[in-house]
Specification:
There is one protein chain. This protein is an all-alpha fold. The chain has three helices and no strands. It is rod-shaped and about 100 Å long.
């Protein structure tokens, strides 16, 4: 009986060490996934901001261009605004939820890539 007590003590210690290591591994994996999703989100925000400014300045240029064609800057900007309204109507009618689906797909893809890296 005295031989079994140290065995079970050692087994218990090894099990506790294993559980502690497993918990730390799970935390690290969660931190890694969070970091990757955050990095993807941040880079997407930066790209979106750059695209916004590009679109903004192109819209200004287009407004002045069509303003010179119509000999009235207000009509030029109204024309550009009309183009955006048409795009908005097309997006609302035809592609409802497309943006959300795209974002969800990107996040899932990022998380799956993280899982694939751990399996290798």
């Amino acid at each position: 009986m005295s031989d079994q007590t140290p065995f079970f003590q050692e087994l218990k210690e090894m099990l506790l060490k294993y559980l502690d290591a497993k918990i730390r591994l799970l935390k690290l994996e969660a931190f890694e996934k969070t970091a990757k999703v955050t990095a993807t989100l941040f880079s997407s925000i930066v790209i979106t901001l750059l695209a916004f400014f590009l679109l903004f300045f192109l819209s200004l240029s287009g407004g002045f261009l069509f303003g010179s064609i119509f000999d009235n800057n207000a009509l030029g900007f109204l024309f550009i605004a009309g183009i955006y309204v048409l795009f908005l109507i097309i997006i609302i009618i035809g592609k409802k939820g497309l943006l959300e689906k795209h974002i969800i797909d990107r996040v899932i893809k990022q998380l799956e890539e993280s899982d694939d890296n751990h399996e290798e």
